[in-house]
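Dear colleague,

Following up on yesterday's call, I've attached the two folding results inline so they're easy to grep. Please treat them as preliminary; we haven't cross-checked anything against experimental data yet. The first protein's sequence and structure tokens come first.
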Amino acid sequence: MMKEGHAKVLAKERYYIIKAGLQTYRLDSFIRTIDKQKGSNKGAILSFVRGLRFSALLIYAIREILSGSNLTANWGHIIDEDGELCSRECDIIIHKKGHYSRWNGGNPDPIMDFRFILQQNAIVVISCKSFLEKSKIEQDYCTDMKRYVDQVWLFAECCGPKSVKIITEEAYNIGYNHFFHLYTWNKSTDTIEDAEKVWFDFVEKIELLKL
């Protein structure tokens, strides 16, 4: 159960801060007009950059939740037990503190901070998506990552209001352990529905990793 009182208020505050920044770029009429101009990225923020921002905001939140424990979260690769092969790129790795190597993180003001995490220290991998549909769920990614960690989670910024159950079932069938989303968005009506309870569930599951 989600803690009550200040713990719940602070978790709610974190949720709405993350959601507000991402949602603004999804609903703004100017941004949407540019996004619809197929075949040209001139003047638009690349989807990769927006996706990286989403995963970064989640990493900051996860680090805060895990503060005081021996766990943290980073963007990077997992190195297998033989030290030979790397996993696919991981949007988020929750792992025991420390890393095998670090790209650019030694800079006092890094632009990129990419970590290489030993397999025995990796706990959870979270795949982050922007607008998620059932057909966009990556089965190969989940299968490949299960070679490195037992827990692979899926987190979408948003999905359609009628897609939550379908995506959840498909994600579980494929092998993801959990599916989370920040909100639902009806493209036809621009209706947004918060997923505050889903966020609280996410926070609880992160908290349980500390035990």
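Below is the second protein, in the same order (sequence, then structure):
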Amino acid sequence: MSTHDSLPALADLAARVGATLRERGQRVAVAESSAGGLVSAALLAVPGASAYFLGGAVVYSRRAGRNMLGVTAEDMAGMRAETEPYATFIAGRMRDRLHATWGIAESGAAGPMGSPYGDAPGHVCVAVVGEASSRVRTIETGDTNRAANMDVFARQLLALFDEVLQSSG
């Protein structure tokens, strides 16, 4: 699938998002799973990141969700990871816990195998949650290459965030 081939490099997306956030005086909190911290690392690599980056977490397991984000069984009732509702929930939870302007999150299956939930490798849901707007998207790369998918997942999340930022001008 070529939906990711035309995306800018991760560093370029992070620089653009960082500049927009800095210009607006807004802050972001990040929750990642299958991107493994690449989004947070890219945002932190931009000089001046302390003006907009509040924190990030790699929430790779239910235990991490419970301990880092306070996710309860009640929160998860009728929901599972790697879905649009879950990605939106986690983005909102990060936003709320860190008192950020924006919460962004991804949840997916990087590969080379599919997930225990039955999602194919290369499946990810990315979400952006703000006070007045939110957006979520599902991407299927069709690729089993774990490292390549992690990069695509990170770029997809930052690209969606950039779209939301630009449309909320």
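For the second protein, one point worth flagging: The chain has six helices and five strands.

Best wishes,
A.L.
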